[in-house]
TrEMBL record:
Name the UniProt record assigns to this protein: RPS31 30S ribosomal protein S31
Lineage top rank: taxon: Bacteria
Residues annotated as transmembrane: none
Gene source species: Aequorivita viscosa
A GO term from the CC aspect: ribonucleoprotein complex
Annotated InterPro entries: Ribosomal_bTHX (IPR031414), Ribosomal_bTHX/bTHXc/bTHXm (IPR030826)
Length: 43
């Protein structure tokens, strides 16, 4: 089990592939959050 093994993390890195043992990083997305001073509907 090492660089030549496709089922290990080290093997995935050496052959530049991904899988369950080496998941891809999720891209960080910025969502517009509601502001603290948001106007509330008056009753």
């Amino acid at each position: 089990m090492g660089k030549g093994d496709k089922k290990t993390k080290r093997g995935k890195i050496s052959i530049s592939s991904y899988g369950k043992l080496r998941p891809r990083r999720k891209k960080f997305t910025v969502r517009p959050s509601p502001t603290k001073g948001a106007q509330k509907p008056e009753a």
